[in-house]
Amino acid sequence: MGYAPLTLQEVARRIREALTDPEGGEADAWRPIREFLDDFRAAAPEVRQAMIEARPEPTGDPRFEAYLAALAEHLAVHHGLRVPRWVEEPGRFLDRWWFPTRFRSLHAMALVESPAAFRRRGIFVDHTELERC
C-alpha cells in the first residue's frame, strides 16, 4: 500500500490525541497541521479535494475546530476547489478572537495579514502561517 496524504479528518484525530496526552499539549497539536500543509502542497490537484472534504470530528478545543474550517475554506478558495459544507457549521466560529502565537508583538500584523477565511472566524495569523502551502 502506498503513501496516503493526511486528510483534515486525520489531522483532527491527531490534534485530539495531542491535546489529551498529558505529555503532549497544544504545542504538539500543531504538528499534524504542518504535516497536512506539506502533504497538500505535494498532492496532485485531483487529490486535494478529498483531503479537505470529509468533516473532521471534534478535537476537544473550539479554537482548533474553527482553525480547521478556516484552513479548509482558505485552501479551497485559493486552489479552485469546492468549499466543504462543514466549514459553515456554527461550532466552526469563535466567540472570542484568537491569536495562535505567544508573541503579542505579532498581533497587530496578524490583524492586517490574516486571510479572510480565518478573520471571519475570529482567528488572526500572520502571513507566514500558511507559507508551507
From TrEMBL:
Name used for this protein in its record? Uncharacterized protein
Q: Which species? A: Thermoflexus hugenholtzii JAD2
